[in-house]
């Protein structure tokens, strides 16, 4: 973890590594960081209005503080994009799975799902977050989300960095599984240098030789949580155990470890019927497992004198 030198701190990442800086991250009316544990929960994909309302109710009751829901999905393969499917509330026809939506259709469909996400968040008092893929969707998404998620694939996307630096809304920046903390701090400095200060880091695992096996995924880098707190103490760190482990039975244990190691929160996929989730069925938690996990996190938070 010694990949950041004194020279880097002085010349390359002076702003993000400031020690005496109070960084205020307000998502809606809730704060991230500052001794508060943020639990962001929701489905990989907003499948319908009914689905997202059901999830919002359940995760709120369990103690989540924010609602997540994907609309633009960065899929590994082009087929089966969930936006090509009929809304689960309607019985309309689904697209042929190999038919690619035009960008206009994609945006219209995403906007409809974002409106469900926002309504569900408002109804249950949960600020909402969704992933951005296209720089020209900032204006549209801004009407609905309280926070933007930048996925690991887009960590260095300069169009997104430029566009998101102009928004007031906070950003959750995922570290790519193959990138060092030095690179992550560099990306953060790109935002800082453009006057954008309200971002949080998201650790979603690193790649090791075995993670190239199709059955396996990234390994949550517990040390990274501690190192980021040392290098950039003002930036909250959220951990995503779902996309790192890609395995339901690993999610709770890794979540507990992350909070115990000092993370400021978690980003967890939750679905009423995980096996049948449109995207990421292998690691979504059902409502009971999620509620049990939140209780455990609350106990760990108490020991750490966090709320
Ligand atoms: C997600 O959060 O749904 C997602 C696709 O994340 P990642 O960028 O970590 O793969
Ligand atoms: Mn997912």
TrEMBL record:
Any GO MF annotation of the entry: transferase activity
Record has Signal as a keyword: no
InterPro entries linked: Aldolase_TIM, Class-I_DAHP_synthase, DAHP1/KDSA
Keyword terms: Transferase
Domain DAHP synthetase I/KDSA, first and last residues per copy: 31-79, 111-301
Keyword Transferase belongs to the record: yes
Domain of life, per lineage: Bacteria
Gene3D superfamilies linked to this entry: Aldolase class I
The protein, known as: DAHP synthetase I/KDSA domain-containing protein
Organism expressing this protein natively: Candidatus Staskawiczbacteria bacterium RIFOXYB1_FULL_37_44
Lineage: Bacteria, Candidatus Staskawicziibacteriota
């Amino acid at each position: 973890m010694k990949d950041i030198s004194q020279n880097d701190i002085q010349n390359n990442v002076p702003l993000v590594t400031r020690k005496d800086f109070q960084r205020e991250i307000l998502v809606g009316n809730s704060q991230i960081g500052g001794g508060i544990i943020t639990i962001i929960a929701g489905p990989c994909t907003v499948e319908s209005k009914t689905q997202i309302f059901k999830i919002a109710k359940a995760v709120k009751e369990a103690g989540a503080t924010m609602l997540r829901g994907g609309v633009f999905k960065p899929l590994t393969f082009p087929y089966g994009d969930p936006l090509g499917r009929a809304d689960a509330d309607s019985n309309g026809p689904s697209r042929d799975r190999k038919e690619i939506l035009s960008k206009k259709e994609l945006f219209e469909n995403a906007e409809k799902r974002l409106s469900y996400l926002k309504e569900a968040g408002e109804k249950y008092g949960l600020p909402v977050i969704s992933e951005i893929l296209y720089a020209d969707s900032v204006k549209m998404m801004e009407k609905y989300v309280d926070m933007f998620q930048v996925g690991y694939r887009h960590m260095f996307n300069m169009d997104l960095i430029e566009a998101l630096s102009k928004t007031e809304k906070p950003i959750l920046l995922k570290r790519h599984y193959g990138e060092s903390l030095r690179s992550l701090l560099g990306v953060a400095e790109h935002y800082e240098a453009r006057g954008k200060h309200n971002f949080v880091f998201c650790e979603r695992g690193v790649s090791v030789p075995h993670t190239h096996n199709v059955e396996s995924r990234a390994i949550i880098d517990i040390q990274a949580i501690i190192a980021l707190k040392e290098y950039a103490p003002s930036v909250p760190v959220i951990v995503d155990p779902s996309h790192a482990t890609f395995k339901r039975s690993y999610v709770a244990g890794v979540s507990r470890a992350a909070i115990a190691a000092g993370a400021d929160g978690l980003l967890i996929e939750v679905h009423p019927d995980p096996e049948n989730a449109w995207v990421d069925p292998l690691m979504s938690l059902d409502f009971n497992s999620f509620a049990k996990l939140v209780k455990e996190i609350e106990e760990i938070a108490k020991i750490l004198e966090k709320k």
